[in-house]
Amino acid sequence: MSDIAKDAWRKYLIQLQAHPLRTKAITSGVLAGCSDAIAQRISGIKRLQLRRLFLMMLYGFAYGGPFGHFLHKLMDIIFKGKDNKTVAKKVLLEQLTSSPWNNMLFMMYYGLVIEGRPWGLVKSKVLKDYPSVQLTAWKFWPIVGWVNHQYMPLQFRVLFQSFVASCWAIFLNLKARTAAIKQA
Predict the structure, then answer these.
(1) Per-residue pLDDT reduced to its tens digit, 54-105
(2) Looking at the chain, which terminus has fewer C-beta neighbours within 10 angstroms, N or C?
């Protein structure tokens, strides 16, 4: 690793230790913005839509990082240890509570705030697409949750989850974009 990268990582770790919530919120916001920029490019948008990018960063900063920070702290209070049974309980609880909530919230935020669609259209889109999105999430996120709870120290769980969530957001963005193109 180069000296610049090592120094940046060291400074990140210092900020993570000194200001965990703020650092996780900023990290989640930056990763959400990166995922949106990638999704815009992949979906064929010629000129980067900065408003949309900013709103995705806001979502990661205001919701993704803080929610993950408190969720993982709570899970470690409720469930002690890293044995397979404990990790399975964490993953199961996460998949039955925060996974459905996060996907629903993201879909509503994307439709209402990012795309600026009226509530009626967003509601019908969520009713139509949410079941398949959630079923896909239940095929993907339990593995991520297992790795996160089993192998990641508490202070890195939001970073890991935010990185994977940025890939997931690309999938959701492209799914939303494909539906919008089909309707046009």
Answers:
(1) 999 999 999 999 999 999 999 999 999 889 999 999 999 999 999 999 999 9
(2) C
Quick check: 181 pLDDT over 60? no
The dihedrals phi and psi of 127, each to the nearest 5 degrees, come to -60, -35
Number of C-alpha atoms within 13 angstroms, CB side, residue 121?
Answer: 13
Cα separation of 30 and 59, whole Å?
10
Tokens of 79: 């469930």
Q: What is the spatial distance between Cα 123 and Cα 42, in angstroms, rounded to a whole number?
A: 26
Residue pair 60/105 in contact by the 8 Å Cβ criterion: no
Task: Give dist(CA 130, CA 114) in Å, integer.
Answer: 17
Give me the pLDDT at residue 180, please. 54
Mean pLDDT of the chain: 91
CA distances from 77 to 19, 37, 63, 136, 147 (A): 20, 36, 21, 29, 19
Q: Which of 49, 70, 86 is nearest to 173 (CA)?
A: 49
Neighbour-count burial for 65-100, b at 16+ CB within 10 Å, e otherwise: bbbbbebbeebbeebeeeeeebbbbbbebbbeebbe
